[in-house]
Each structure stands twice: as C-alpha cells, then as structure tokens.
Design brief:
The chain has 11 helices and 4 strands; from the N terminus they run H-H-H-H-H-H-H-H-H-E-E-H-H-E-E. With 324 residues, it is mainly α.
Length: 324
C-alpha cells in the first residue's frame, strides 16, 4: 500500500516508514498473536477430529481479518482504484509499469482474505460475521483492477516482446478475472466462497504456463529471437538467417548487444545456434560477452602496447558511436 501510494499517486513516503511497519508487524503483532492464542489452540488440538480450524480459534481469526487484513487490503485496493480513476481522467497517456505487480499483490491479499473467510464460514459463531460477508466481495473488487493491469502488461509486450515474467503476470491477471467472476456469482447467490473452483482455475493456469509450445518459456523464447533477428536485420548484421561477424573495427548498437545478451543469458547459446556463422562454436555454455567477443560485436579493437613486456601489453579500446 505504501509503495502504491508513492509510485502511482506521487505521495512522498519516508524511507524509514517501511522499516517501522515491518518492525511493528514482525516484532509486535505476530508474537502477540501467537502468545495470546497458543494455549487455547494447544488445548483443543487433542480433540480435533479433522484438520480444520478449531471453534475456539475462529473468533480470533475473525478479529484478525476484521481488524487488520480487510482494512489493509481495502486501503491497498482503494489506492489502486484512485490511480485507475486518475488515469481515466487523463492524468497519464499509458498506465505505469508498476501497476501490474502492485495490482497482482493486492489480488493475492484478496484471495488470502477469501480463503480465510471460507474457513470462518464453516463455524456457527462466525458464519454471519461481517468479515465473512465482506471477504466475498474483496476478490470481486480486485478483479476490477485487472483490465488496466493487463493493458499495462500488453504495452510492455508490444515495446519489448514477451518475457517469462510478463507472461506470468498476464496469466495471473486472467486468473484473477476468472476468480472475480466466480466469486461475484457465488456472493450474489449468498453461497460460500468458491475455493474449489479457484483452485481448479489456478491449476489450469499453472499447466497452461508450464507446458507445451504455449508455455511461458517457449513463448518468451520465440518472441525474443524474433525481436533479435529483426534488430540484426535492421542493423545489417544478418544475411539469409546467419549473423555477420565483425572482423575489424565496427560499432554495434547498444540495443542489439542488449538483445543478444538477453537471449544468451535467458535461453543459452543453443537458441542462437541456427544463426551462428560456420566456424563459431562453443564447448560449454558461454557468457553473453564471450558470444559477442567471438562475433566481434564487443565494440572493441585489439591494441598492442609498444612497451614490450608490459603487463598491459594487450588491451582493448572500446569504440563509441561513429568511431573507427
């Protein structure tokens, strides 16, 4: 919530605020929470017939959700909705890149509240509690943030191509949308939280993103190789699908060097093998700078020091743009 207020709304947050917040929760709230309920939970543990929340601990969880989880999640989501409203009123031409991780984090908190509310709904003394009823709509509220979140991700995909991280974020946004629709239907009908349906949707999203040619790694690999090939074509460093090495002094743009570096770093040099010229091979998986050195793309020329025997007899002079 603090990061959202600072990054999206421009509210100045003191750097120590994060440490104070963490200290209050980690060293104040958490020890108090454990110490206050541990004797009751331990006493009831021997009488528990199944792995579910004990009735004695249900009021405590209800108080924790009502006093901490729901207000903080509600504040977090409200800040994001304020940014959505400012954006729709024309405060920016495109949503900020931080919108997607912040909105997805808020959605994760909302799902946590929904799961806790489902547990509370199993107990008679907390079934009609305010936290149980409100938690049904938190996931729906988080789902309303997903259109702008998906737009922010798609803008970066259009600019820089697919990456595994962008794929996972977009898939998570779609998953939250599905959960929001399911939760809205159940809340409207007054039914319990659709935890089973949400878990099925999560499993389907994990399978979709992990396997096959539509998985995160393969989609990212194809996208980045296509971008790199197009960039090399634009700079005249590829011919008939084969990269053109640089034998003498030449300048390779930073954009092209960054792209080949990313491909090698993320997918290994094997992704470039069909594009490497004859005579260039690697025994082991090289680092990006080693691949660029083999291609002569490191924007450097070898220089021999005239002072024989000097420890710096051979060095490299890096060229700037338009230098030969």
């Amino acid at each position: 919530a603090l990061v959202a207020a600072e990054e999206l709304l421009g509210v100045r947050v003191h750097s120590d605020a994060f440490a104070y917040l963490f200290g209050g929760i980690a060293f104040g709230l958490t020890p108090w929470a454990i110490a206050s309920r541990l004797p009751h939970v331990a006493a009831a543990a021997g009488h528990r017939a199944e792995r579910t929340l004990d009735d004695a601990a249900a009021p405590y969880l209800n108080a924790l959700i009502s006093a901490l989880a729901l207000p903080m999640t509600g504040l977090y989501i409200t800040i994001l909705y304020i940014y959505n409203a400012l954006f729709l009123l024309g405060s920016a031409e495109a949503p900020k890149n931080m919108m997607s991780p912040l909105a997805l984090t808020a959605s994760a908190l909302a799902l946590g509240c929904a799961i806790a509310a489902d547990e509370l709904g199993r107990h008679e003394n907390t079934r009609r509690a305010l936290s149980t009823r409100v938690s049904r709509w938190v996931v729906v509220a988080a789902g309303g943030l997903m259109p702008l979140t998906a737009w922010a991700i798609l803008i970066r995909i259009d600019q820089y191509g697919w990456t595994s991280f962008r794929y996972v974020r977009l898939l998570a946004a779609l998953f939250i949308c599905v959960c929001a629709v399911i939760a809205a239907i159940h809340a409207w009908r007054g039914r319990a939280q659709p935890i089973a349906e949400m878990m099925l949707a999560a499993a389907a999203a994990c399978v979709l993103g992990a396997a096959g040619p539509w998985g995160a790694v393969e989609v990212s690999r194809r996208s980045q190789l296509s971008r790199f090939s197009q960039a090399a074509q634009d700079h005249g460093r590829i011919h008939q699908g084969v990269l053109i090495p640089c034998d003498g002094a030449c300048h390779i743009s930073d954009d092209l060097r960054n792209q080949i570096g990313y491909v090698v770093e993320e997918f290994g040099v094997s992704a470039l093998e069909p594009m490497l010229p004859a005579g260039i091979a690697f025994d082991e998986d090289p680092r990006p700078w080693e691949v660029m050195e083999k291609l002569g793309w490191n924007n450097a020329v070898k220089r021999v020091d005239p002072y024989e025997g000097s420890p710096r007899a051979v060095s490299y002079t890096h060229l700037r743009a338009h230098e030969t």
